[in-house]
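## tool: complex_structure
## caller: assistant
## args:
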Amino acid sequence: MAAFRSQFECRNDDVFLASFPKTGTTWLKALCHTILHRHDQEEEEDILTKKNPHQVVPTLWSFLSCYLPEEVTRSPAAAAGCRKLVYLARNPKDTVVSMWHFYNQVHKGSAGPLSVERAVESFCSGVMPWGPFYEHVLGYWEESKKRPDEVLFLKYEELCGEPKEQVRKLASFLGRSFPSTTDGSVEKVLWRSSFGRLKELEVNKYGAVGEQGLHLSHTIYFRKGTVGDWKNYLTSDMARCIDQVTQNKLLGTGLSLDDFL
Ligand code: A3P
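## result:
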């Protein structure tokens, strides 16, 4: 922690993005980059056509040889003094399903596939890669309540459901408001960062990026990109188990992580 503190300091204009894995980090990186650079990029110069979003906005852990201490992963802005932090949350059932697919992709060939039953059991008993999930979300949720001018809390489902409003909110938080509602610039940002576009770009079909000692193909970050895919994988018992844990963990916090379906 001390070493981390002494090596990492936010500059005044840095924007810190935080999210639990598989909650839409790739999207958030693409969106923020596109918003911040929308004036100085013509189509052919859009760096997202040449690099995967994780290369454009590298993950902090890529620079470290070990896992970040819990204190930092829970509230890095508080630890490092960042003035602008955007957190993206996602409903737990889609997060579990996305994580389960991701896990099986990463370990393909090396171990037998993890069953969805095991993945849900493990999540419901509080064990998850990069966990604990709820403590992570709630840490940032509380931070956003304490410092609303400095911490913006977004939800994947709201970005999908009302993309223009959410992108306007994000841009205004980043100090890059859209002056007009009719010139098509919000739509352009959304399109440039969209799942459909990014997934089809050559750069994201090939190549790999290093994450926490793993060599991950660019394709792995683009699976389905929808809300409610959990319905295709979870039984009603599994969904109930996750809902129960979610209800208990979020009780009295004022936060909901619904999928709106
Ligand atoms: P699914 O597995 O449900 O499809 P992360 O970026 O944190 O690893 O999260 C990955 C999830 O975000 C995956 O969800 C992925 O498909 C989805 N995703 C990636 N890029 C996206 C985009 N531009 N828009 C919406 N969802 C996206």
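## assistant note: The first strand starts at residue 16 and ends at 19. Confidence is low (pLDDT under 50) at residues 1-5. Handing back to user.
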